[in-house]
Each structure stands twice: as structure tokens, then as C-alpha cells.
Amino acid sequence: MARRWVFVVVLVWGFLGLVGCGKNAPVAAGPQGIYDQHCAQCHAQAGQPGGPGIGGSRGPNLAKIGAEPGHTAEYLAAYIRDPKSAKPGAKLMPAFGDKLSEAQIKELAEWLAAKK
Ligand code: HEC
């Protein structure tokens, strides 16, 4: 019986430790932080932090997205809010209008538009 309790305590403790680690992990501030949390899982390319080890990423590379014609901060903000209304062909990227604040979307859009 006693051994069972030790097992449970170790499990709970380990779980809390994991959760704690997640919170204390260094998260970049500003647009880079928003990107790391919400966008990198699809947009990071192989070799970049959060990118796939083998195979392709789900989203296109955004490293030079600001250099694409028409990709102003305004367009990018509209795209992040709701990809489908900004570009009819978009179908896989979720809308972030209800997940990020307007200030976060603007910050992110300006940061992306400056990537040339
Ligand atoms: C679930 C995967 C996924 C996530 C998460 C995601 N994207 Fe995308 N994104 C895509 C895909 C896939 C495309 C290509 C278009 C399509 O099919 O939706 C795309 C396209 C884009 C484009 C290209 C627009 C263009 O006109 O070339 C931009 C900019 C972009 N994403 C920004 C972001 C930002 C910023 C975030 C985080 C707030 C984000 N994405 C999160 C999958 C994702």
C-alpha cells in the first residue's frame, strides 16, 4: 500500500514539474513570442526552432513575406484575422481574429511586413 502512495506522489509531482517547466520556458516577448506560440507550429521550416525534423511544414515560409507584392502590414493583419476573407484560396490556416487581440495582430503584421 505504502509503495502505491509513493508512486502516486511521484506521478503528481512529476506532472506539476512538467507544467512548471512549460511556464518557465523562455518565451520571447513581442511579435516573436506571439509567432513562436501561435504560428511556428505551421510556419517554421525544417531547421528552424519548432520546425519539422523531416518532411515539410504545413504553412509557407514567412522569412521574406514582406517582400511579396501587396503584402503590407494592413493586408497581413487582415490575413491573420481571417485568411479566407483576405485570400479566397486559403483553406488550411485558422483565423486568429478571436484568438489574438487587435494590438497583437497589428504588432505581428508590422513585424512580418518588415521581413524583406
Ligand atoms: C494550422 C497551421 C497554421 C497556423 C497555426 C498558422 N498558419 Fe499561416 N498559413 C498556413 C497555411 C497552410 C497557409 C497557406 C494558405 C492556406 O492554405 O491557408 C498559410 C499562409 C500564411 C500567410 C501567407 C499569406 C500570403 O498571402 O502569402 C501568412 C502571412 C501567414 N500564414 C501568417 C500566419 C501567422 C502570423 C500565424 C500566427 C498568428 C499563422 N500564419 C498561423 C498555416 C498556418
Task: Give an overview of the whole structure.
With 116 residues, the chain is mainly α. It has one domain: Cytochrome Bc1 Complex, Chain D, domain 2, CATH 1.10.760. It is 53% helix and 0% strand. It contains 6 helices and no strands. It has helices spanning 2-24, 30-38, 40-43, 73-81, 83-86, 102-113. The radius of gyration is 19 Å and the shape is globular. Bound molecules: heme C (HEC).
- The shape is globular
Mean pLDDT, nearest integer?
84
Give the structural class.
mainly alpha
Distance between the termini: 64 Å
Ligand inventory reads: heme C
CATH class group: Mainly Alpha
What is the N-to-C order of secondary-structure elements (H for helix, E for strand)? HHHHHH
Poorly predicted runs are none
Kindly state the percentage of residues in helix: 40-55%
> Tell me about the biggest sheet?
none
Domains (count): 1
- Would you tell me which CATH topology applies? Cytochrome Bc1 Complex, Chain D, domain 2
Q: How many strands in all?
A: 0
Beta percentage is: under 5%
Q: How many DSSP helices?
A: 6
